[in-house]
Design brief:
Elements (H helix, E strand, L loop, with lengths): L2 H13 L9 H15 L6 H10 L14 H12 L4 H13 L14 H12 L3 H14 L17 H6 L4 H7 L11 H25 L3
Helix pairs in contact: 1-3, 2-3, 2-6, 3-5, 3-6, 4-5, 5-6, 6-10
Organism: Chryseobacterium taiwanense
Protein name: Phosphohydrolase
Keywords: Hydrolase
């Protein structure tokens, strides 16, 4: 493994120490491994993919008063300290800036394959068994109700509404998680997402069965 990747891993581990469990080093590590797995099937710059995956949540706006510039600033300063070429830095920052679900309406056309790969990996980690665990963890972190039959999912939210949303954890499946399968960019991403999507449907079926004491 090259030194830059090693140093980035070390930097991210230190930076995210004590982070909320759904957005901690283990989330980054899974996204990094998934990105490498998807990258094997694509013609791409693997270094850009790995660096973007490792740095994509270095300062998630959710935990920094919605500040979307902080991650770009921290990533640039770190990569410059490692004497990374400006070309690589620009590509990595482009991925970090355009990866998130809430920004999908603002993303330019013709996205680079490196962004598509890391975005798929990040979205895959939001679904399946891990996705269910992360969703309930974050709902607990925000003290949101698990489920309330009187609160319906809010579909087609604007970016601002999505950022402010304090709906139920179960509604989050309908507002985001179940939509991710059809937003995959790569064929490998689609394949992995399919299985995880089906698992979430099984979970929801069981959840409602138990909730309604059937």
């Amino acid at each position: 493994m090259n030194n830059l990747i090693d140093n980035t891993i070390q930097f991210v581990k230190e930076k995210l120490e004590g982070a909320e469990a759904g957005h901690d080093w283990f989330h980054i590590e899974r996204v990094w491994k998934l990105s490498k797995k998807i990258a094997e099937k694509e013609d791409c710059n693997v270094e850009v993919v790995e660096l973007s995956a490792l740095l994509h949540d270095i300062a998630d706006p959710k935990f920094h008063n919605g500040d979307e510039t902080l991650a770009l600033k921290i990533s640039r300063e770190f990569l410059e300290s490692q004497n990374t070429s400006e070309d690589i830095i620009e590509q990595v920052l482009f991925v970090i800036k355009n990866i998130s679900f809430k920004n999908r309406g603002e993303v330019p056309e013709n996205l680079p394959i490196e962004l598509k790969i890391v975005q798929d990996a990040d979205r895959i980690d939001a679904i399946g068994a891990i996705g269910i665990g992360r969703t309930f963890n974050f709902g607990g972190f925000k003290n949101n109700p698990m489920y309330d039959p009187n609160i319906k999912p809010s579909l087609n939210m604007s970016k601002e509404e999505y950022k402010k949303s304090n709906g139920t954890t179960i509604n989050h499946f309908y507002e985001k998680l179940l939509l991710l399968k059809d937003l995959m960019n790569t064929s490998e991403g689609k394949k992995i997402a399919e299985e995880r999507h089906d698992f979430m449907l099984t979970f929801l079926h069981q959840f409602f069965k138990e909730w309604n004491v059937e």
